[in-house]
What does this fold into?
Amino acid sequence: AQKVTQAQTEISVVEKEDVTLDCVYETRDTTYYLFWYKQPPSGELVFLIRRNSFDEQNEISGRYSWNFQKSTSSFNFTITASQVVDSAVYFCALTSHNTDKLIFGTGTRLQVFP
Amino acid sequence: DGGITQSPKYLFRKEGQNVTLSCEQNLNHDAMYWYRQDPGQGLRLIYYSQIVNDFQKGDIAEGYSVSREKKESFPLTVTSAQKNPTAFYLCASSSNRDRGIYGYTFGSGTRLTVV
It folds into this structure.
């Protein structure tokens, strides 16, 4: 069975602090895909990144960066110099060719205070 | 603009009543999904459909029903059999050609409250 664990339920930081959101996954498939989504207060899930299991390169997009480590089955997300607009719930998710669905973690609520 | 439209945004239901949540997409996606979101529980899959006139139960299908008569539409009915229907409901879609490996597109959700 596939599973995604986001152990951090809620994180609070002050603006300009760096923050890392953890994601640990379980799968028996050798080919799989990992995602991060952002859910602002409006409710819609916004796609942030997709990573396949064969690409372990870390990725940086502006203030966002992702660290994918197959050895520890982790796909962590770091926000550098956080801003109030980063306040949201962030979900990590997993799928593969052997499943028909996207498996989500329970989400991490990030609050960034001015 | 292509996307997913969920309506209404807020819905109130009396106990014992059935209610239907609308989900329409103009992305030409084959697959559509319904998720339920409760605080602290993430997103749980209710039903999904990969093709017109076919759908499968997800992890928490009891008390819900769906139909897929058109590619663009995947309405969800919350029946009176659903014991605790108050939640946030999200609809999503993906292209069947890639089986969702490029992720899903989500609607903006419907917040259902039982009064």
In short: The mean pLDDT of chain B is 91.
